[in-house]
Write a structure and sequence with these properties.
- A hairpin with a 2-residue loop joins strand 7 and strand 8.
- The protein is built from 9 helices and 9 strands.
- The longest helix is centred in the first third of the chain and has 35 residues.
C-alpha cells in the first residue's frame, strides 16, 4: 500500500510543486502590484536628479579677455598646485606646456575629457570648474619676456613668518576650483599627468569653503571669523587694482598677479580665548561679521570710536584696523580657502590658504602685510608657513594659447 501510494505521489509531486511555485509567483506579482498601486508600465518615471543636472549644466566659459577663476564667486572646493619646470626646460618647453594646458583646460571646463583621458566620465560634471594659470619668474625669462618688478618673493616679515621650503615659490601655478571635490581631483590629475615630461609637482594645497553659509556671508574661516569682507569693486571703479594695464609689460595686460600665503592656525590656543577676546582681536563680531562699533557686515568701521575709558572700541592692534587701507591702492581681491590636513606630531595642520589677486602686489599687498606683521592680535593664533607670488596670464581669445603674448 505504501508502495502504491509512493508511486502515485512521486509522479504527481513535480507537477504540484510547479503549480505551487507558479501560484506563489503570481500571488507575489499581485501583491507587488497592489503595494505599488499600479503596474510597472503605468508608474511615472523617477524624477531626474536636479543636483546632477545642475552640475552638468554649470560649465564656465574658458575663452575671454581674462582667465576664469578670478571674478566668479569662489566654489566650495579648490586645489592650488605649484610646479617646477625640469632643469633642462627651455622656451619651447614652456610653449608646449601652455599649449597642452590650454586645450586640456578648455575641454575640462566644458565638461569633456582631455585627449588622453581614460576616465572621461569623471569630467562630465564640470560643477562650475575654473582653472587659472600663473607663472613664476623662470617661465617669463625662458619665454624671453619682460619680467615685472613685483614678480619675485615677497619681502621677509620676520616678526611672524615661519616659512617652509615645502610651500615656497614655484615656476607655475594651477588654481583649480569647482563645487565638486571629484571634479577638482580629476582636473588636477589630468593637468598634472599631461605635462609630466615637462614639469613636476612642487606642492599641492587643497582647500574648502562652507557651501551652506547664510546669505551675505562671503566665507567663514576655521577661527569662526567672517573672511573676505570689504572687497574692492573690481568689476567697476576699482578694476585697475586687479588687472595689469598700460604701465605693465605688454604681454601681461589683461592679466593679474596672485599671492598665495599658507597660514597655520593654533586652534588649541584659540579655544582657550573667550568670545570677547576673539572679537577684540578681529575687530568684528563673530556672529554677523559686523564691526564691533555696530552696524552690519557691510557697515564701515568707526575707527575713531572710544569707550568710557577713552580707549578705541576697535583695538589699536585689531586685525581689521591693521588691515584697513591707509591709501586707496592698498586693496586687493581676496579668494581664501580653509584647509584641514589632519594631525601630525600631536598638533593639527589646520589653517587658511590666503589667496589675493591684484595688479601689483609690491604696491598693494606688501604695505598691508607689513602692518599686520608689526602688530596684529591675530598673530597670537596664526603663523604663515608658506608664501609664493605668480603672474596670472591674460585670458586666451579664439584660437589663442594661454601666455601666447609672452613669446611675441
Amino acid at each position: 500500500m505504501s508502495g502504491s501510494g509512493a508511486g502515485g505521489d512521486g509522479a504527481a509531486a513535480p507537477r504540484r510543486r510547479t503549480v505551487l511555485l507558479s501560484g506563489l509567483a503570481g500571488a507575489g506579482a499581485g501583491v507587488a502590484a497592489g503595494v505599488g498601486g499600479a503596474p510597472a508600465a503605468e508608474r511615472p518615471a523617477p524624477s531626474p536628479d536636479t543636483r546632477l543636472a545642475a552640475g552638468r549644466a554649470s560649465a564656465r566659459a574658458f575663452r575671454g579677455t581674462h582667465q576664469a577663476g578670478i571674478l566668479e564667486a569662489p566654489p566650495a572646493q579648490a586645489a592650488f598646485v605649484a610646479f617646477d619646470l625640469h632643469e633642462q626646460a627651455d622656451g619651447d618647453a614652456v610653449r608646449r606646456l601652455l599649449t597642452v594646458w590650454t586645450d586640456d583646460i578648455e575641454r575640462l571646463m566644458a565638461g569633456r575629457g582631455t585627449l588622453t583621458d581614460l576616465e572621461p566620465e569623471l569630467a562630465a560634471v564640470p560643477a562650475s570648474l575654473t582653472v587659472t594659470v600663473g607663472v613664476g619668474p623662470r617661465v617669463v625669462e625662458l619665454a624671453g619676456a619682460e619680467r615685472p618688478d613685483w614678480l619675485a618673493p615677497l619681502p621677509a616679515f620676520p616678526e611672524i613668518d615661519a616659512l617652509e621650503d615645502a610651500w615656497g615659490e614655484g615656476d607655475l601655478l594651477l588654481q583649480i576650483c569647482a563645487e565638486s571635490p571629484t571634479t577638482v581631483a580629476h582636473a588636477q590629475r589630468r593637468l598634472t599627468t599631461s605635462v609630466a615630461d615637462l614639469a613636476s609637482v612642487r606642492w599641492v594645497q587643497r582647500g574648502f569653503r562652507e557651501p551652506f553659509e547664510g546669505p551675505g556671508i562671503p566665507m567663514r574661516n576655521l577661527l569662526g571669523q567672517v573672511d573676505g569682507t570689504v572687497q574692492p569693486d573690481v568689476t567697476g571703479l576699482d578694476a585697475d587694482l586687479l588687472w595689469v594695464g598700460a604701465d605693465g609689460p605688454a604681454w601681461l595686460r589683461g592679466g593679474s598677479s596672485v599671492v598665495v600665503r599658507r597660514i597655520g592656525m593654533r586652534l588649541d590656543a584659540w579655544d582657550r580665548a573667550d568670545r570677547a577676546a576673539r572679537e577684540n582681536a578681529i575687530g568684528r563680531r563673530l556672529d554677523t561679521g559686523a564691526p564691533v562699533t555696530g552696524g552690519t557686515l557691510d557697515s564701515a568701521a568707526d575707527l575713531e570710536a572710544t569707550d568710557e575709558l577713552g580707549f578705541h572700541v576697535i583695538d589699536d592692534a585689531a586685525h581689521m584696523r591693521r588691515a584697513h587701507a591707509t591709501a586707496p591702492h592698498e586693496r586687493f581681491l581676496r579668494r581664501p580657502y580653509s584647509y584641514d590636513d589632519g594631525v601630525e606630531g600631536g598638533g593639527m595642520r589646520t589653517g587658511l590658504v590666503f589667496v589675493a589677486f591684484q595688479a601689483d602686489p609690491a604696491r598693494q599687498f606688501v604695505p598691508v602685510q607689513r602692518r599686520l606683521a608689526q602688530a596684529d592680535l591675530l598673530n597670537l593664533w596664526t603663523v604663515p608657513v608658506g608664501s609664493a607670488v605668480f603672474a596670472v596670464l591674460p585670458g586666451a581669445g579664439s584660437g589663442e594659447v594661454l601666455g601666447q603674448a609672452m613669446f611675441a
